Amino acid sequence: MPQRTVILIFIVPPIFLLENYKNFFKKFFPKLLTALLLSAIIFIRKEMEAMTKEQEILKHMELLGISREEAEQLWEDDHSEEVLPEVAEMERKAKKIKRYEKSDKPRKPSSKERKVDPDKKHLINCIRVLLEGLHAEVEPLTNERDLHFTYNGASFSIILTRHRAPKQ
Questions:
Q1: What is the structure's pLDDT at 156?
Q2: Would you say 147 and 158 are in contact if contact means Cβ atoms under 8 Å apart?
Q3: What pTM did the predictor assign?
Q4: Which residue has the higher pLDDT, 24 or 146?
Q5: 68, 54 in Cβ contact below 8 A?
Q6: What angle do CA 90, 88, 67 make, to 5 degrees?
Q7: Which helix (H) or strand (E) holds 125?
Q8: What is the mean pLDDT of residues 53-72?
Q9: Structurally, how many domains does the chain consist of?
Q10: Is the pLDDT confidence value at 38 over 50?
Q11: Residue 124 sits in the same domain as residue 153
């Protein structure tokens, strides 16, 4: 297969004619580069489509290091319009999969009442009393889990977590 070289030519006005050449490059260079890359991709794709069956088979044999029979089978699979039963089955299963995108409907607020842990509440109150004895500015308690306070000008917080009992 003959090797081909693609030469890209940039057509840019002389920079010294532009008063503000930095803005030119900020505005037009990304668009120009994108257009040139797309042109090169289209050119290469058309060249690949123009390859004959024999050329593609030889290319597969060379690149993948496979036998001629395997390369012919690969070419047949690539250019076949037949839908294999395994692929059809996978598509059917994929359609049944539940999707978890965010719905447009707002969620209903939970009617479940949050239980207050009396042990945690007692411990947080004891820590609060201790901190007040150290002349810390303790913020009002919002729940039995968090405790926020300021000591010597620095802000601190304590989060109390109750761990589950180990399994027997």
A1: 92
A2: yes
A3: 0.36
A4: 146
A5: no
A6: 90
A7: helix 118-133
A8: 86
A9: 3
A10: yes
A11: yes
Q: Which helix (H) or strand (E) holds 147?
A: strand 146-151
Which domain range does residue 40 map to? 22-51
Whether 105 is covered by a domain: the verdict is no
C-alpha span between 136 and 126 (Å, rounded): 14
Same domain, residue pair 28 and 47: yes
Residue 103 vs residue 126, higher pLDDT: 126
Residue type, 8: L
Q: Which of 101, 157, 99, 163 is nearest to 124 (CA)?
A: 157
Residues 6+ apart with CB under 8 A from 117: 144, 162
Instruction: Tell me whether residue 164 is in a domain.
Output: no
Question: How far is Cα 80 from Cα 131, in angstroms, rounded to an integer?
Answer: 76
pLDDT-based confidence at 90, cuts 50/70/90?
Answer: confident
Whether 136 maps to a domain, the answer reads yes
122 and 149 part of one domain? yes
User: Which pLDDT belongs to residue 1?
Assistant: 47
Predicted local distance difference test score (pLDDT) of residue 150? 92
Q: Is residue 38 part of a domain?
A: yes
User: At 10, is the secondary structure helix, strand, or coil?
Assistant: coil
Both tokens assigned to 164: 């589950």
Q: Residue 61 has which token pair?
A: 């044999």
Strand partners, 151: 154
Strands 146-151, 154-159: pairing is antiparallel
Token output for 3: 């090797």
Tell me: pLDDT of 40 over 50.
yes
